[in-house]
Amino acid sequence: MVAETRLRTDDLIAPLFVREGIDEPQPIASLPGVMQHTRSSLRDEVRQLRDLGIPGVILFGVPAAKDANGSGAWDPDGIVQMALRDLRDDFGDDLAFVADLCVDEYTDHGHCGVLDGHGSVDNDATLELYARIAVAQAAAGADIIAPSGMMDGQVGAIRAALDGSGFEHLPIMAYSAKYASALYGPFRDAVDVTITGGGDRKGYQQDYANAREALEEIRLDIAEGADIVMVKPALSYLDIISRARAEIDRPIAAYHVSGEYAMVKAAAERGWIDGPAVALEQLTAVKRAGADLILTYFARELAELL
Ligand code: PBG
């Protein structure tokens, strides 16, 4: 009766992977219970999530072939665009289709942007690609565009591209405070990404030593037109969620990432913790800190539990 926070199914967004060129869904060893879907198994999965009351899904594509610029990301027949059209056909407006916008799943070097002659990410050249991806995703039926590459100016560039193509109404969920975290490992298995030369994303993602900088990133994204701002990962950054909640009046999303999920699953498999109980405790804490929306691989499990 006096509980201040209650986690509900309609707080949750399920991340889903769809892979080009496979006939059967493929399990992901480091993400137990999560699959690389075929177009057809994705439709089945979304139907079940919809029936459980999950209000939205976020889609990540795994293309059959990768190249230097990540062209599969904006190809109208790229895997995510095809999947968006399938889902829109099947489910209309029953749930929100969020399109993650980045090129790392599509580039052969695994970075979130195109590289310059020295092997560094070229921020401004990347913005042109992001604009094309946003329009392709919008045309395929995305409800929300979610840029995750942490390029400077990405929200403004995407907003302008959407507005210029008749998609003024589409909101942007910006991965605004995305940290250069060691917790993304299982996700990179899920999308077959290895950053060449043992590289990392510290040039564009945030330093986990910094909090004020995250607030500045969030304010910049809102000034460029972000409608929803995200903090990622979630549990090690509850202070950031809480500070953002105090300062910002936009909806705040938090991404409970692959490594956070995998740790709970691995310990639960060994019988060391009660997995569902820990998941509920952790995700309630994320909501208590101030998140309005939570992206989590536990979405289905929690929806079955709640
Ligand atoms: C980048 C992207 C990443 C995640 C979502 N979008 C990985 C990265 O930045 O390397 C991670 C999500 C997770 O770990 O669950 N396109």
Task: Provide an overview of this structure.
The chain is an alpha/beta fold. The chain has a single domain (9-305), classed as Alpha-Beta Barrel (TIM Barrel). The protein has ten helices and ten strands. Helix 1 crosses helix 2 (79-91), helix 3 (123-140) crosses helix 4 and helix 4 (154-164) packs parallel to helix 6 (212-224). The longest helix is centred in the middle third of the chain and has 18 residues, at 123-140. The model has no long low-confidence stretch (mean pLDDT 96). Ligand PBG is lined by residues 100, 102, 104, 112, 148, 184, 187-188, 201, 257-258. Residues 100, 102, 104, 112, 148, 184, 187-188, 201, 257-258 line the site of ligand PBG.
Instruction: Domain count, please report it.
Output: 1
Shape verdict: globular
Radius of gyration: 18 Å
CATH architecture: Alpha-Beta Barrel
CATH class designation: Alpha Beta
Helix content: 25-40%
Which ligands, by name, code or SMILES, are bound? ligand PBG
The named CATH superfamily: Aldolase class I
CATH topology tier name: TIM Barrel
H/E element string?
A: EEEHEHEHEHEHHEHEHHEH
Please give the alpha-carbon distance between the first and last residues: 17 Å
Number-wise, the strands total: 10
Count of runs of 4 or more consecutive helical residues: 10
Indicate the multimeric state. single chain
Largest sheet at a glance? 10 strands, mixed
Low-confidence stretches: none
Structural class based on helices, strands and sheet pairing: alpha/beta
Keywords: Heme biosynthesis, Lyase, Porphyrin biosynthesis
Organism: freshwater metagenome
Pfam families: ALAD
GO biological process, one term: protoporphyrinogen IX biosynthetic process
